Amino acid sequence: MSARSRVGSVVDTLLDRTVVLGFGSTGAAVRRRLGGPVWPADPAPDALVGERVLVTGATSGIGEAMGRSFADLGASVHLLGRNTDKLAGVAAELRRAVPNAEVVEEVCDVGDLDAVTAWADDFAARVPALHGLVHNAGTMTAEREESAQGHELSLAVHVLGPHLMTSRLRERLVAGPASVVWVSSGGMLGAGLASDPDAIESRRGAFNGVQAYARTKRMQVVLADAWAHELDATGVRVESMHPGWAATPGVTSHLPAFARITGPVLRDAREGADTAVWLVATRPESHSPHFWHDRAQRTTTLGWQRPEDPDAVRRLLTYVTGATGTAPFRALAGSTA
Ligand SMILES: NC(=O)c1ccc[n+]([C@@H]2O[C@H](COP(=O)([O-])OP(=O)(O)OC[C@H]3O[C@@H](n4cnc5c(N)ncnc54)[C@H](OP(=O)(O)O)[C@@H]3O)[C@@H](O)[C@H]2O)c1
């Protein structure tokens, strides 16, 4: 490693540990300037020509920015949202901005398991192969809310719906082969893994929306790692990432005080989308636990935290496959929860 690379790597680590600098716009800007191993090269401008990418939660913020970035790289982009009018508006804007792009509107409520099943089966009948799938849809509620199937809402939107979607689109992902990316959150670093049904469903004690959000964001990272293992031999890549702190309608409406305080340091939505887009467009080598931020793999546990407990992981995965009626992960087949 050259002296310049060593300095770059030290600065990158410092940014990561200071959180405010690393997660905000400074982190992305400094890392981009450092280049080299800290900020690997951009994808080629035509990296995704002839490829098909689906983004969930594409009607706002980071997902909307992703749609634009994927279209700029030549992909056919499927924008998935739950609000038909909002989706039509975002799709029209994307077609105006990138006139040659193929933009397809997909309507589905990711938190409703029946809707995901119906939509995924329809999608699989229309689309033979998918090259990129970004699980970006996200939510945070002040009170405990439940999905159509009675699951805590952030669990349904962040974990159960995306898991079911991945499972039902499995053959189309293998046909790509695809890169699947779960958009988690740096907030997951402060949350432990919930592994018994009451904790997973946030039924224990007073409900705290920020905590439920962070817990489900950690579940996403664990689930992505399990899917990476499951699809290892198929050519499908599965990663999770966190976008840092980006100025989006979601942050303003769910965390107004946070948005006010951090406003000056927030990155823009396109910077928040960058690592997910880069992962799909460049398919870098990665290793467990496959968790990324600013184009580099990051730790999923801070210094004082223990590594993920394999029994807790097994219990969570068993709950997820049970709640979604999907096949057990190969690594767990035959084991009891
Ligand atoms: N911004 C940040 O600083 C930050 C930090 C860490 C992680 N993240 C993650 O980044 C992702 C995008 O967040 P954002 O900041 O861009 O938030 P946002 O502006 O609120 O966008 C969230 C998107 O998810 C969609 N969505 C929510 N529930 C859905 C459902 N049940 N079915 C389908 N779509 C649904 C929303 O649709 P509607 O338009 O219909 O509401 C919207 O398009 C989220 O997963 C979030 O957790 C963001």
From TrEMBL:
InterPro entries reported for this sequence: NAD(P)-bd_dom_sf (IPR036291), SDR_fam (IPR002347), SDR_member_12 (IPR052992)
SUPFAM superfamilies: NAD(P)-binding Rossmann-fold domains
Gene3D superfamilies, per database record: NAD(P)-binding Rossmann-like Domain
PANTHER family assigned to the protein according to its UniProt record, in alphabetical order: DEHYDROGENASE/REDUCTASE SDR FAMILY MEMBER 12 (PTHR44656), DEHYDROGENASE_REDUCTASE SDR FAMILY MEMBER 12 (PTHR44656:SF7)
Name listed for the protein in its UniProt record: SDR family NAD(P)-dependent oxidoreductase
Gene source species: Nocardioides flavescens
